[in-house]
User: What shape does this take?
Amino acid sequence: MRFRVLAVLTSLLLATAIVGCSPRGGNPGGGGGDDDDDDVGGDADADGDSDSDGDADGDSDSDSDGDADNAGPERCDDQLDNDRDGLVDEDCPCELGTNQACYTGPAATRGLGVCSDGEQACGGQPEFPSWGSCAGDAVPGDEVCEDGIDNDCDGGIDEGCGEPDCEVPEFTEEQDCSDGEDEDCDGLPDCEDPDCSDECGDECAAQENDCEDGLDDDCNGLTDCVDPACNCGDGEVCDGRDNNGDGRIDEGRACGDAGDGNGACPPGAFRICDVYCGVHQLCDDEGMWGPCIVDNSCEQVPECDQHEDCPRGEYCDYGACSPGTLDPFGGACENDGDCDGGFGGFGDYTCQVDQGVCISDCYHHDDCGAGFVCDLGMCVDDPYVPGQC
Assistant: This one.
């Protein structure tokens, strides 16, 4: 009787186990509980490999690059180091005396560039043979420039070497401050780039970097617009030459203006004085700015070379003091209302209270953009011919 009860209980337990383990669906070609083609069940995805990461790249991490950057359990017979311990197919069965290819690098790099398989042998005791170490495989290394080889096995050759592809910049800051290259594609290589300030210290830049900072970046004695490297004249360069072929030299404030102060300059260059109409300075043979001279006559200004040389209510025009308001008696403006209607009824004028004159856009030349000058309080294209006598 006891044996009959035990037999019934055993039958019930077996039936329960069969129902509990029965797959809800399966691949006719495999014995597992998923839709892949392997014979290892229970990986809970339908991607065709035996891991459960949801992709078919052969590793056990969740990305699809195949490099097993999150090490998973070792898999047999794929010849890779899945658990990233430096060993391939360890603890996997093998036939004593046989050999197989092996690779210890990331799976995604296998067969790319210099990366290639090595070989391992099945050895050990006849009862428990196992795969030995992988010998002779080549894994990724650092990219070597100008060797024409994909050293890091990423499918690219000499990437990061030489002049970068600035359509898709690789770096956000300068990488090497002495290689002559502009790695971050900001137009400033090496010590010209502020990224290199700590490494380069006070070293001079190869050319003027900022044409409005008041500094001589390249240490050539020429600061900002006076340096030919700057293009302050909207096509004309400060060099004492007619660069754009219009018959004029250094027009359009190519050399800045006299309000920038005195300093070294390219001999033969011209810059406009901080007054209205045609008054310029000539850079002498020693590279220093001379006095303000009137165009056409090339004589020194009769009264003024800046507005502040004139009484309040007047500005400097063509080297002479002229009324700067609507008051026929030369009185100074005190507020914008004194300038209503403009000169001759044209323009919208305001009062430049310090000098007591009416202006529209500007008082100084540097109130205007590149290529423009301030003439009678308005920003205009430079109409003058510097130094014409």
User: Anything to note?
Assistant: The first helix runs from residue 2 to 21.
